[in-house]
């Protein structure tokens, strides 16, 4: 059995694409180990179907030279105090530091070109230090690097394997367009450092996969790829796992149990109009616009299905709802396992995608788009290009102007007035749903693996 190691820079549990890829590859007969790197107290292990999952702890201390971008002794303590205090002093300090950060970028790019990340974002070495030895020990035939941070880790592991005489292959899975990404850290070094990091290692990939046709075209343009990336959509799992006959009785996995009832968790009867937003919460994702629209939609409720109902931004949204006197119509619920999610969402009336205009939002067909579609929910989406064009073409929902609460309310009213018309887009021979399944995507990924690992004469 050929061994596949997947790498990701998170704790796995909230990343449905990574989970689906690992489990479906194992179902197809690959020996899969999924390695996550995250800020956890100790290594965590579990099984995802036939795939093994290992989440490795990222230590607080960096294994990088102290001469990497840093300040004089005592600066880190001042930074800690400013972060703890927050507010205007922190914003002023960050603004004052911008000229220094831009100067650092110019200096190190002039000296090291794409390798400037070693000085500008030295924390990338933490992933190498933690995951690299584990990958080497597993001796994989193929490494599947999810997203941009793990590309360098995978490329260096492939170099070491080939130096030892093993022809290990590398697949890079580009989850987003990095030039259009919102920096994960509030400094001017983050984006140029990571762009250089990707440029340094992208040539090591034997194949590239990504999430949409638009992003595939951008990757070809940006990196002069010799072949167009294989598009693996963020589509949901639709098949029910086949029952197994264990030698000893075992408790069912939570994902294989029936989905909970969304309306029951919200305390709502079947005839109450219910909007649902499922996924990560951040200002640029537009949930504030939905809250501002609720006073224009009497009797309509909103369910927010999120990773952490107690997160600071979620609490801010709930407080905003209370100020608009619609707090009793907003229901915050935790995630359910991704294999239960489509059935869970199906009890709603409309699926919401209220994104603000941001480069990556314009080119993506995001996971929740496909989850709403398989739940047969009409979709109300902001006018971000790719999803808005898809909804207009399919007739599966309505489009509104991003950040415009009144226009969002208009779109919701239109759908609630004739939901059957919008749901009809999912039925009949022209339904897009058969191609929007993870099972269809898994076949493409399996074919790519086999092509890469089939000897050529």
UniProtKB/TrEMBL annotation:
GO MF annotation list: glycosyltransferase activity
The segment annotated Disordered runs over 237-256
Q: What keywords sit in the KW lines? A: Glycosyltransferase, Transferase
* Record's compositionally biased regions (Pro residues): 243-256
Domain Glycosyltransferase subfamily 4-like N-terminal residue range list = 105-234
The UniProt entry, under InterPro entries, shows:
Glyco_trans_1, Glyco_trans_4-like_N
Glycosyl transferase family domain sequence ranges: 262-422
Which domain of life does the protein's organism represent?
Bacteria
Which PANTHER family does the UniProt record give? Answer: GLYCOSYL TRANSFERASE GROUP 1, GLYCOSYLTRANSFERASE
Q: What is this protein called?
A: Glycosyltransferase
From which source organism is this entry? Micromonospora aurantiaca
């Amino acid at each position: 059995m050929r061994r596949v190691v997947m790498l990701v820079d998170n704790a796995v549990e909230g990343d449905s694409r990574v989970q689906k890829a690992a489990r479906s590859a194992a179902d197809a007969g690959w020996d899969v180990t999924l390695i996550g790197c995250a800020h956890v107290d100790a290594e965590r292990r579990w099984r995802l179907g036939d795939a093994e999952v290992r989440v490795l702890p990222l230590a607080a201390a960096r294994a990088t030279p102290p001469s990497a971008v840093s300040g004089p002794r005592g600066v880190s303590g001042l930074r800690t105090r400013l972060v703890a205090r927050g507010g205007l002093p922190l914003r002023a300090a960050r603004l004052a530091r911008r000229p220094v950060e831009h100067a650092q970028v110019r200096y190190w790019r002039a000296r090291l070109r794409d390798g400037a990340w070693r000085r500008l974002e030295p924390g990338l070495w933490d992933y190498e230090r933690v995951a690299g030895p584990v990958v080497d020990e597993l001796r994989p035939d193929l490494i599947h690097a999810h997203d941009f941070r793990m590309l360098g880790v995978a490329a260096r592991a492939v170099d070491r394997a080939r130096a030892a005489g093993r022809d290990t292959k590398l697949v890079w899975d580009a989850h987003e367009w990095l030039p259009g990404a919102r920096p994960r850290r509030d400094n001017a070094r983050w984006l140029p450092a990571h762009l250089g990091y990707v440029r340094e290692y992208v040539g090591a990939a034997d194949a590239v996969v990504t999430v949409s046709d638009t992003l595939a075209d951008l990757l070809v343009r940006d990196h002069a790829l010799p072949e167009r990336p294989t598009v693996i959509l963020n589509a949901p799992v639709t098949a029910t796992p086949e029952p197994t006959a264990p030698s000893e009785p075992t408790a069912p996995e939570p994902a294989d149990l029936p989905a909970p009832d969304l309306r029951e968790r919200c305390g709502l009867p079947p005839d109450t109009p219910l909007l649902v937003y499922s996924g990560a919460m951040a200002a640029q994702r537009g949930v504030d616009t939905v809250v501002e629209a609720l006073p224009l939609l009497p009797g309509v409720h909103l369910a927010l299905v999120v990773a952490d109902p107690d997160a600071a931004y979620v609490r801010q949204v709930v407080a905003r709802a209370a100020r608009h006197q619609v707090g009793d119509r907003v229901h915050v619920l935790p995630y359910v396992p991704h294999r239960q999610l489509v059935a869970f969402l199906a009890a709603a009336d409309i699926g919401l995608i209220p994104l603000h205009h941001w480069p990556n939002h314009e080119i993506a067909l995001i996971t929740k788009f496909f989850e709403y579609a398989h739940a047969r929910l009409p979709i109300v989406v902001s006018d971000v290009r790719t999803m808005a064009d898809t909804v207009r073409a399919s007739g599966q929902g309505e489009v509104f102007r991003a950040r415009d609460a009144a226009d969002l309310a208009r779109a919701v009213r239109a759908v609630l007035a004739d939901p059957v018309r919008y749901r009809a887009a999912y039925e009949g021979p022209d339904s897009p749903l058969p191609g929007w399944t993870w099972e269809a995507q898994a076949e493409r990924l399996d074919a790519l693996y086999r092509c890469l690992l089939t000897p050529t004469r």
